Description:
Blueprint: E1 9-18, E2 21-30, E3 33-38, E4 44-47, E5 52-55, E6 63-68, E7 71-76, H1 78-88, H2 91-103
Antiparallel strand pairs: 1-2, 2-3, 2-4, 4-5, 6-7
Helix pairs in contact: 1-2
Amino acid sequence: MVQAGQEFVSKTAAHRQEEGWDLTYVQFKYKGVKVEMGNADDVRIFDVGDQAWIKLNIDLSRYKKVRLLGLDLPLMLRGDWIRYKSMLLRPVDVEDISAIHEEA
């Protein structure tokens, strides 16, 4: 994916612990939309409710296929996405949750 979308990379593939996340990912900006792809191994997020870093167990059998840059890619299901965004609860997460509810 990184090779196919090289011209759209806005954050290079690297391990980062920032803004409630601890994972390896790459970020693209494609047609004005941020698209993030991460490694599902050993992902941790900061749960604001418990005030602790927790392992994010991603069920890789649950996804929707989307086509992007000529590739079929797995996309996290809406409910799973809302669940982890609800743990982070940064201002951007609250906006994202609100937007996805409006879309439904």
